[in-house]
């Protein structure tokens, strides 16, 4: 893996019990790029995102994020990733002190407001890799995974 690579996946496979849902998947995401990740329902996009973020273990193959192996370094990798996979979850009774919404609890936010809050939470630690996965914002109608430098 060279220094320009944010995410490298080689021959990834994933089974749930005996059912193979990902077979020989390969991906190369360069730092500073925006990478669109599209596929049919059930094709394995979320499963791959979860493997990249350490929420699931690969069955076979190799996944490196920022030069680190997801099997060995998942905690360190998390420090370099801001991710929003499907719907964000929050403490619903808390407010977040945004000027436009006053003391409204998160439980009363609209879908788009929740999604924007989820993005803000994913970016607050200034990660090198930003992953977004949802369709509720107009500008995010497809699944997008980017390796955009935090200084951009
Ligand atoms: N925890 C699980 N246990 C068993 N099977 C699972 C599990 N998670 C996902 N799967 C299966 O793995 C396959 C891929 O699912 P995944 O959620 O990754 O698809 P997706 O590409 O994100 O789909 P969508 O576009 O609908 O979000 C599906 O057949 C799904 O049923
Ligand atoms: Mg999905």
Structural class, from secondary structure content?
A: alpha+beta
**Helical stretch tally:** 3
> Total strand count, please?
8
Tell me which CATH architecture applies here: 3-Layer(aba) Sandwich
Largest sheet: 4 strands, antiparallel
Provide a compact summary of the structure.
With about 150 residues, this protein is of the alpha+beta class.
Give your account of this protein's structure:
The protein is of the alpha+beta class and 152 residues long. It has a single domain, classed as 3-Layer(aba) Sandwich (Rossmann fold), CATH 3.40.50. It has 3 helices and 8 strands; from the N terminus they run E-E-E-H-E-E-H-E-H-E-E. Strands 2-1-4-5 form a 4-stranded antiparallel sheet. Strands 3-8-7-6 form a 4-stranded mixed sheet, sandwiched between helices. A hairpin with a 2-residue loop joins strand 1 and strand 2. The longest helix is centred in the last third of the chain and has 13 residues, at 111-123. It is globular and about 50 Å long. The protein binds adenosine-5'-triphosphate and magnesium ion. The site of adenosine-5'-triphosphate has 10 residues, from helix 1.
